[in-house]
Amino acid sequence: MSSFTCPNSGDVYDIFGTGGGQKISEEYDIPLLGEIPIDPEIRSGGDSDKPVTVLQGTAAAEHFFELRDAVTNRIGAVNRAIKGELEADAENSPLVPAPQQSMDMGDPTAPGGQGPPGGPGGPGGSGGGCGGH
């Protein structure tokens, strides 16, 4: 969510602060695709079975259309990169390398192991963890 603009005064309030989405996108090196404001029009459209996106020309709808376009463009860029039309390591590549993780999770049946939830070693199982018996 982004800001709230008071329909009576036009004053803008950052109820949840500002810049959080941008900070996360920079931290993970991914684009910020959009920000949707807190808008009473969005709620009222949903309540009346007329989602704001069908009310073309409204300010609230424009935010969703911008987000739609950003997502569509991002998907297209990823598809081009996958097909080899963009180099994966190129500066403008939309592909984000997955973090390297160890696949060794230890013995899943050992106490405190990484077994499935409810199974031996998992939460709720007899091998320890949260709710162990």
Could you describe the 3D structure shown?
The chain has helices spanning 20-27, 40-47, 59-82; strands at residues 4-5, 12-13. The chain has 133 residues and is mainly α. A hairpin with a 6-residue loop joins strand 1 and strand 2 (12-13). Mean pLDDT is 72; it is low at 112-133.
**Weakly predicted, low-confidence segments:** 112-133
User: What does the main sheet amount to?
Assistant: 2 strands, antiparallel
Proportion of helical residues: 25-40%
**Oligomerization:** single chain
Going across the biggest sheet, name each strand in turn: 1-2
Mean pLDDT across residues? 72
Count of beta strands = 2
User: What is the molecular shape?
Assistant: flat
The secondary-structure class comes to: mainly alpha
Summed up:
The chain is mostly helical and 133 residues long.
List the helices and strands and how they pair.
Blueprint: E1 4-5, E2 12-13, H1 20-27, H2 40-47, H3 59-82
Antiparallel strand pairs: 1-2
Keywords:
133 residues; 2 strands; mainly alpha
